[in-house]
Amino acid sequence: MATIDEKIKTLEDKLKQERAKKQKLETRKRAVESKAKRASENRMKILVGAFVIEQQRKGGIATHMMTYEGQRLEDWLTRSDERALFGLSPLAESPAAKG
Questions:
Q1: What CA–CA distance (Å, rounded) separates 34 from 65?
Q2: Residue 68 host element (H or E)
Q3: Which of 40, 48, 94 is CA-nearest to residue 73?
Q4: Predicted local distance difference test score (pLDDT) of residue 98
Q5: 63 contacts 57 by C-beta, under 8 angstroms
Q6: 38-90 pLDDT tens trace
């Protein structure tokens, strides 16, 4: 027959295992939620972008004229590959970036 100390040890071990299972499930749940959130955000970006492009084409608005709350899209785009998508020339490399 198991002593009380052995029973306690067995129960403590089982508790540790169950806590580890719970932690693993919570981690998996957070990962799934995070993935879904990223997917939703990406879909929103695609839809907003499609809307802007459609309005740009319908309205004949040039990229250099596109602004939102005072910031021009042309100034917001800094990466050469992204600027190329809109037919914009790459930005000149600043002296500070060369440093």
A1: 36
A2: strand 67-68
A3: 48
A4: 47
A5: no
A6: 999 999 999 988 988 888 888 888 877 888 888 888 888 889 998 898 888 89
Residues 90 and 80 sit within 8 Å (Cβ to Cβ): yes
pTM exceeding 0.70: no
CA 70 to chain CA centroid, Å, is 25
Residue 91 has pLDDT above 90, yes or no: no
- Kindly list the distances between the CA atom of residue 63 and the CA atoms of 58, 70, 73, 83, in Å, as whole numbers in the listed order: 13, 14, 7, 10
- Residues 63 and 73 sit within 8 Å (Cβ to Cβ): yes
What's at 11, amino acid-wise?
Answer: L
